[in-house]
Design a protein that fits this description.
- By secondary structure, the protein is an alpha/beta fold.
- The protein has one domain.
- The protein is built from 11 helices and 9 strands.
- The longest helix has 25 residues.
């Protein structure tokens, strides 16, 4: 039978003889090489997995990378942890809260302590302990909070921690002109086909009283040329349901507020025109670095009011239709912000869970509770409803499988909830020594992420 050894080049012995190193079968040499390569590859993978990772970039993208700003080595706010305390101060005898994790490789953010140590000795939270952490992300930066009265409270806490004063922007302010220029097409009843068909007419008091209401609030840290500002909206409302409130500022629809109020406001603070400038104002802003969006309490108030009117429980679980509608509208709202500022980093803040020691009512939230009037048993929220909104929000930011809200993924960076039942400023807003300080360090972290180009 003929031999086929000549057709096996990998197993045939070379001519070096049995005692030669070349005598080993070629297939064994190839196997040794592949084994060594695999071992090296696995070693490199292990080293990479142990190294700290930079924050993941969302599909929204951040702004342009700024010189001198490095991305945080890790994100402690995305990890399980607990509230620890910094050194006591006169304004916070128990010490300001800070978020600590159980991972020594990513224990805490150093940015809040760095900010406190950098403030002048007249600041209420000055620690007199210089720290090396860089605050380059604050240089000539601007951040915008888009939310409700809780965002105003958080802005106030950040400004108090920095030792700065909060300023209101009304119609008389150089940046407040948008309050007076809202198109009539975006005012009720012109934006409500059913109301127009029924012959409804506008309440002219809305136009007359606008000048007394605030478009926004801000504070300015001159040492860093950093401006933090907050603007407000009425949640997912599409029917101008809050137009009769004494504090209402048109328009009601979120997308109209973005185009009619928020964009002109940011444009005014960025303008060098004489009507937008004053010696007492911060310098014209060169860009908007970060937008932090939140929504929830106005929607909870609307659902509670509907349930009370229908004789139903205002604390029952939210229906599937309500949650799906809220989630879809929230995606629209985030998309409106992304369209308005396409080069700006965008984050979505979850609603905090207030303590139950001071229950909030619908009338308290809307401002309809008169002075000295006994609160009605109309709860603004319940923990199960807040939790449902948190899960709906996470389902948008962390899509799984085929569950992709409106066909889009990763619309904004996640801004997680890290407080449960800590001290309150009012029935819904956190106090400065826990919620205010932890929000401040989360804000600094997100600004660093945005400035590093993520």
């Amino acid at each position: 039978m003929p031999s086929n050894a000549s057709y096996r080049p990998l197993t045939k012995k070379p001519s070096g003889g049995a005692g030669s190193p070349l005598a080993a079968p070629l297939v064994l040499q190839a196997n040794t090489a592949l084994t060594a390569f695999s071992a090296l590859f696995l070693f490199l993978c292990l080293v990479a997995s142990l190294a700290p990772t930079a924050p993941s970039a969302s599909a929204r993208g951040g702004g342009p990378r700024r010189a001198g700003v490095r991305a945080p080595a890790c994100n402690p706010f995305a990890l399980p942890g607990y509230v620890a305390r910094l050194a006591p101060t006169n304004a916070a005898p128990a010490g300001l809260g800070t978020w600590r994790t159980f991972d020594p490789a990513c224990a805490a953010s150093p940015l809040l302590a760095a900010l406190l140590s950098s403030r002048p000795s007249t600041a209420p939270h000055h620690l007199h302990t210089p720290l090396p952490a860089s605050l380059a992300m604050l240089r000539n930066a601007t951040a915008l909070l888009v939310g409700d009265r809780t965002d105003h409270a958080l802005l106030t806490h950040v400004c108090d921690i920095a030792g700065e004063k909060v300023e209101a922007v009304d119609a008389a302010h150089p940046w407040g002109a948008p309050l007076q220029t809202v198109p009539r097409a975006h005012r009720w009843p012109n934006n409500d086909a059913a109301a127009l068909k029924a012959g409804q007419t506008a309440d002219e008091r809305e136009l007359l009283d606008t000048g007394k209401r605030a478009l926004a609030h801000y504070c300015y840290l001159s040492d860093y040329d950093f401006l933090l500002t907050s603007v407000y909206h009425y949640g997912t409302d599409t029917a101008s349901r809050w137009r009769s409130l004494p504090s209402f500022v048109a328009p009601s629809l979120f997308e109209d507020r973005v185009s009619d109020l928020f964009v002109p406001y940011i444009s005014a603070m960025s303008s060098s025109l004489p009507q937008h400038r004053s010696p007492t104002l911060p310098p014209a802003r060169s860009r908007l670095d970060l937008v932090i969006f939140s929504s929830g309490f106005w929607d909870l108030a609307a659902w509670a009011r509907e349930d009370i009117k229908a004789g139903s429980s205002a604390t029952s679980d939210l229906s599937e239709s309500r949650l799906l509608e809220w989630r879809a509208r929230s995606v629209d709202m985030v998309a409106a912000l992304a369209k308005a500022w396409p080069k700006t980093s965008l984050a979505w803040r979850s609603s905090q869970i207030p303590s139950s020691t001071e229950p909030a009512t619908v009338e308290w939230w809307t401002g309809e509770l008169g002075e000295g009037e006994q609160p009605k048993n109309h709860p603004l929220f319940s923990l199960n409803r807040l939790s449902a909104l948190t899960n709906a929000r996470r389902s948008v930011l962390e899509p799984h499988g085929d569950d992709v809200a409106k066909g889009l993924r990763d619309r904004a960076a996640r801004f997680p909830r890290r407080l449960l039942g800590q001290g309150q400023l009012d029935p819904v807003s956190p106090s400065i020594d826990a919620g205010g300080s932890i929000f401040t360090e989360m804000l600094l972290h997100q600004l660093a992420v945005a400035a590093s180009g993520y």
